[in-house]
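Local shape tokens

___
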Amino acid sequence: MQNTAHAAGTDGPELVDTAPMIEDLYPALATLREAGPVHRIAGTDGRPAWLVTRYEDVRRLLADPRLALDKRHAAPGNYSGFSLPPALDANLLNMDPPDHTRVRRLVVKAFTPGRVERMREPVRRIADELLDAIASDGRADLLTAYAGQLPIIVICDLLGVPQRDRRDFRAWSDALITPDPARPRAAKEAVGSMLRFYTELIAKKRAEPGDDLLSDLIRVRDDEAGDGDGRLTEDELTSLAFLILLAGYENTVHLIANSVLTLLDHPTVLQKLRADPGGLAAAFDELARYEGPASLAIRRFPLEEIEIGGVTIPAGETVLLSVASAHRDPAQFKDPDDFNPHLGRSGHLALGHGIHYCLGAPLARMEMEIALAALLRRFPGLRLDVPRERLRWRPSIRARGLISLPVAW
């Protein structure tokens, strides 16, 4: 029987409780997926949203042009996401074609495969230095001391952020990504600080360009300035730098930490990868599928009434695509709750799909492979330093990340 939502602001289907998704994600998603392909829930902003649970639908809708990312297509009163100033909000996560096509084309000119490949040796050096710093301790919170350090250093190197500013950079990022309930104004203050910082940094790099991605983006923006609709605006330039930091930091931190935990939970696979680190490249896709860092794709808004899995959703309502549920869908993956990189499973959606496929995917792959290879090589006795049941996940339906990862060696 078809389920039709009412317009935003009126009564609709009863909301599904999302608490089980926070308490035990995958069993809760399995229950929803088996019950139906689409469910009405309280979204990440507390307002009603539609959650899509099955792989076939999620993959198709990630590339469906009828679902917009631009918040201006949200129905009045339907969505209230985190508020950013225009100079940080004009990024690819809020854009649809033709703006998305234009901006992505210009970013690709600067974020080249060659640039990523040149970072391979510096990333190895960073990983080794971080492990040197904790090696004699015999134990550490790997999330704080390693997985949380490597990506911020890499992103700052990539953007050309001066060494003296990096501590502030990480504090601002953490305030946005993991807000402290005891400091309700911290996120807003971090946004203001980051906007001032980026404005000043762009001005300095425009005056004295360096061999970094931000300098190249400035060149692209300024070189294209006379090209009419083909140019980047100054807000788009600043927003790109902001997005590169947040996307390159948060997701990679939890991709590394989640992968370490997955390998510790599967010692036979861990031993094989320790003996043959070359296998980490092939294991990446299974690690990203099994315990990826994003439970949900970025919210979307139908441009017109749309039917998903027999449910009719009006234009402008919020649609959430559950990547985590899609990755455990038995209709797509055999024995999806088992971790087995040797099965050669393909088709994970951890890096997106369609025109919004992650621009930084090659960098994320390289960082994780190098981070895991260095860790397995340096600490052959790596093990959890607390009982497995004491580990806690962040209380979020949007992101899948540990609060801490205590290990010993």
